[in-house]
Structure formats: C-alpha cells, structure tokens
Amino acid sequence: MSLGKVDLTKIKPYGDTLNDGKMQLSFTLPVPKGDEADEAAKQLARKMGLSEASVVHSHDLGVGYTFFIMYGNCSHTVDYSVIEVPKVDLEFMDKKGVEQYIEENIKRDVVIIGACTGSDAHTVGIDAIMNMKGFDGHYGLERYKGIEAINLGSQVANEELVAKAIALNADAVLVSQVVTQKDVHIPNLTQLVEMMEAEGIRDKIILVAGGPRLSHELAQELGYDAGFGPGSFANHVATFVVKQMVERKLI
Amino acid sequence: MRLIEELNQKYNSVSIIGLAKNAGKTVTLNYLIEEAYDSTIKLGLTSTGRDGERLDLVTETEKPTIFVGVNTIIATAKSILEMGDAGLEILETTEFTSPLGNIVLCRVKAEGNVQLAGPSNASDTLLVKEKMIDYGADLVLIDGAIDRKAVASPRITDACIIATGAVLSRDIKKVVSQTAYYASIFLLPGVEDLELLNIKFQLNRTCIIDDEYRLNYPEMKTSLGHGRALASMTDERTRYIYLSGAVTTSMLKDLTFGKLNYTILIDDGTQVFSDYYNYKNLKKKGLRLEVLNPILVEAITVNPIAPFGYSFPSDELVRMIEEAVGPIKVVDVLGGGV
C-alpha cells in the first residue's frame, strides 16, 4: 500500500490507491432480477457520478424486486479543509468526574428522564445511555452516584413524557429517535418542545435529543439544548446536563 | 399600504409561524425585509431555529439567504457570526445559550447576508426581543422554526403571520382545511364575560370556576394526563375550566361529555395540541374553547410550491384559503403583490 500526499481540499474515496475513488454501494430496485435490472443499476450508478460501475452481486428479493451490490469509481471530490461541524463544545468528564461535580456543585440528586418517543420502538440508543451496563465499556446513567435515571422505554407519547417530567421534577429529559419514516421524527420532536413551552417548564429543563440523524446543529432548529449523534456515551450526556444546570442556575 | 408599514404602525414585534417545514417562513421574512429596505423602519431580526444557511439540515433542499440593510439589529449565535458577509458591530454578548453558542446582538454596519439562530426557548426570545427594541429596533421580526409555534403567544410577540403552503398535503383541499384549522386555533375567541375578566389575573394555575366565580384548585402538579380527574370535579354549577398548560386532544376528549355547561378557558392558542379531525368532532359535541389573550393574526402567507416537486395554482390556493379563514389578508409571497 502506497501512501501519497493527501490534498485535503480535494478528497475522494480510497480503494487500492489514493484518489482512485473506489466505493461500494448497495440498494434495491423495484424490478425483477435479470440483465435489464443490472443495466438499470449501472445506469443509475453512472448518473450518480460513478465511472466503471459494475454489479458484483444481485439477488431476487422475491416480490419482483432486486437487491444490488455495486462497485464504482467516484468522480467527485470534497473540500475537507473548510468543513465546520458544530458540536457540543465541552471537556467531557468521566463517570467519576461527573459524580464529583454533582457532589461539589449541585449537592443533590439530578433527575434525568429518558424515552424513545412517538412511534419509535428502537430503544438501543436510549438504553446505551441510561441502562446500568451502558455500552462499549461506558456505564450508563443508572449507575452514576448522584443521578436518578428513569428510562420510560419506547413509544412514549409526548404528553406522557411531559407529565412524568413535571411529576418527578426532572432536571433533564433525553429523547431518542432512531428509526422513523418520512422524517416524522421532526414534528414529533418539535411537538415535545412546544408542549413543554405550554406547560411553562421549557426553560427549567435541560432538553437533549439523540439518535443517528440528530446533529447538534439540528438541535438548534428543533428547540433542544443539545443533539448527540452516534458515538456518544453516558458521560458525554451527563457532562452536558450537569454543566448546563450550573451555567443556567437550575440547581 | 405595504404590509411592513402596517405592521410597524401597529406593533413592536411580529412572529412568523410555519404550519410545517418548508411552508415558506424565511421567504415571508425576506419579503418583509425587502419591503423595509427602502423605508426608514429599523428592523430587529432573530430566529428560534436557523435561517440563512444554504442547505436545509433535514431535506437538503436549498434555503433562501437573508440579506439585511444597514442599521438592522440582529440576534444570532456566536459560532455562526462569521458565516455571513454583512459588516457587523457587536453590541452585546448575552448570557442566553443555544446549541450554536451564546446569543450575540449586532448592528449591521455594511449590508450583506447574515445567518440567524437565536435563543431556542420562548422566554429567552422574549428578553432578546426587548433588548433589540432597547438598541433602537422599531419592529422586531421573529422567525419560527419548523412548525414551532410558542413565540406566537401574545406573551412573547404582539402579532403573528402564519406561513402555510403546498408542503402540507398533495391535496389542495387538505392544505386549505389544515390551514383553516390552525388559523381557527390561533384565532380562538377572547372570553367576553366581564365578571370573569375581573378575576383574570388570579388565574395562574389550572382551576374550576363555578357560577359565582369561585375558584376550585385541583390537587395536581399538571393537568396533563388528568383530564378524567378534572372532569369528575365538575358539576352543574361549573361555568369554566381554566387550563394553564398544554391542551391535548385526549384532554379535550376527557372534558367534552354530557350536556356541557362549561367553557374551557386557556391563555392563548399556542397551548392547543390537537388536529383538524378530532377538533372538528369535539366542536360538534359542543366543545367551547375561549382564550384570555387572543392572538392577532395579521396575515397568512402562502407558498404554492412544495419542495418535493408539486405545486398548486397560486390564485386558486389563495382564494380558497381566503374563503376558509375569513377577513385575514392572504398573500402569495412568491408571486408577490398584496
């Protein structure tokens, strides 16, 4: 493998050699398997800017649909040097650090409620943050001293979540949205914000959204205080919540 | 008279509320900015979401840029301050936080494009609005985000403009009926009972009001999820149920039964979380909903084009909405012309 000098203003995919643009993609077309289907897939790939597109695997999905895996060479480049992604800009504390911070600065238990709201039944995200055992070697919030973590589970209605937050005097509410269709998670997430506004608790609660399609930047638009995407752990969320509580004088 | 001049004569602040994403809020904002450009009106601008970035974060469709004239006051987040090309003088860095950094107040010194991302909650927005007026803004325009409506509350802004459009449905009739539903919620009638208005300022949490205007407070931290319990506290002497928080479809259902000798009273239309069909059914069953503080809807703007590639004839959509909402100005902000 030879490593040439990477031009960060014009990056493209790496396969065997630098800038060969090699990439693999997979998708389904609503047509029966056959030579015509393969040709349709190739034409589509060419329209996406892939040269030397080839179908390396295709199989019949049984309902007149065909699944494809393709290779091709991407002809586009991206200027990496000018990319700026807003992130939660904090020095993250570990579990011990958070526990100590709570003891020194908040001096009471912090109540954090988590839920997967609306039609979403995929709790993998919220469980990774909340559950005792945590995820990938990072314990979840239930194990933190000084944090009372309540996981309401999946398909929780917004009004139920808001009612619970009020009943338990929650300091923070974490909402997870993993899989939804046709961007229905967007109005569902904004409805929660608006309901909290109507109940007069929005400015008293740290509101955090998480999920594979929720960036910190999108959180702004939705009216949340932060958005945590993939690769976030309990200590990241906990650091954000406890620091915000102190900064916004919500102790 | 131009819309912006009318607004400026009557109000200090106006919110622009979308009924859905891509309903044309920013186009409406730009329409007003453009009208103000060659007038002496000093605008104050902020957004509860994000305005002026090139691509939409969810649908990746192109979004309008925001071009502002000299002396405009803007409130936006620190981290996106440098993403525009207008010359800005920083007036104040506030303590209000947002995911994109603290909110900064600026005066435009050289015209150009800006990005707007203001405070994300309504109470901070209120304080930022007041600061912009202190710095000399004649009229503050607050752009809502997605379908968020809280800043339309008379507690936050004096009046509002509703932005609607083809994006609501592929069926023009549904666009009209949904727009008319939301408009009717915003335009819920103010309570006219003088004796009740006398005790208006005592109303700060959910209670039941009888025919002698005595207040009976239920033992609950929130009325959410306790519709049945509230209903069980009513009797033949009940005249009003005042709800201080969110009013959901299930709450309205729980409170709409029997021969209904009471009116449900709320602060304003931003508290209602229902939908066209349920609300229509409840009205048929006799639901009466009145507000302490009516929202002033100054205009409805219409975007006849949806980002997914379909559109309706502008004249027809405007006319149908006019017929459905009554005496409110309806404007196609893309086609122009009031």
Features:
heterodimer; A: alpha/beta; Rossmann fold; 2 domains; three-stranded antiparallel β-sheet; 8 strands; B: 338 residues; alpha/beta; five-stranded mixed β-sheet; 26% helix
Plain-language structure description:
The complex is a heterodimer of chains A (251) and B (338). In chain A, helix 2 runs parallel beside helix 7. The mean pLDDT of chain A is 89. In chain A, the strands form 2 sheets. A 5-stranded parallel beta sheet of chain A has the order 5-4-6-7-8, with helices on both faces. A 3-stranded antiparallel beta sheet of chain A has the order 1-3-2, covered by helices on one side. Chain A folds into 2 domains: 22-80, Defensin A-like (2-Layer Sandwich); 95-247, Cobalamin-binding domain (Rossmann fold, 3-Layer(aba) Sandwich). By secondary structure, chain A is of the alpha/beta class. Helices cover 31% and strands 21% of the residues of chain A. Chain A starts with 21 loop residues before the first strand and ends with a helix. In chain A, 39% of the residues are buried. Chain A contains 7 helices and 8 strands. By secondary structure, chain B is an alpha/beta fold. Chain B folds into 2 domains: 3-187 and 295-332, Rossmann fold; 194-291, no CATH class. Chain B contains 9 helices and 18 strands. Chain B has helices spanning 3-10, 25-37, 122-134, 172-186, 194-198, 227-232, 249-255, 276-284, 314-325, and strands spanning 13-18, 43-47, 66-68, 73-77, 87-93, 103-110, 112-114, 139-143, 159-165, 207-210, 215-216, 238-242, 247-248, 263-266, 272-273, 289-291, 297-303, 329-332. In chain B, the strands form 4 sheets. Chain B has a 9-stranded mixed beta sheet with strand order 5-6-4-2-8-1-9-17-18, sandwiched between helices. A 5-stranded mixed beta sheet of chain B has the order 11-10-12-14-16, with no helix packed on it. In chain B, strands 3-7 form a two-stranded antiparallel ribbon. In chain B, strand 10 (207-210) and strand 11 form a beta hairpin. In chain B, helix 4 runs parallel beside helix 9. The longest helix of chain B is centred in the middle third of the chain and has 15 residues, at 172-186. The N and C termini of chain B lie close together (9 Å). The mean pLDDT of chain B is 92. The chains are: A alpha/beta (251), B alpha/beta (338). Chain A binds chain B through residues 86, 88-89, 159-160, 162-163, 166-167, 183, 186-187, 190-191, 193-195, 197-200, 202-203, 215-227, 244, 247-248, and chain B through 20-21, 48-50, 57-59, 77, 79, 97-101, 117, 120-124, 145-150, 221-222, 224-225, 244-248, 250, 270-271, 273.
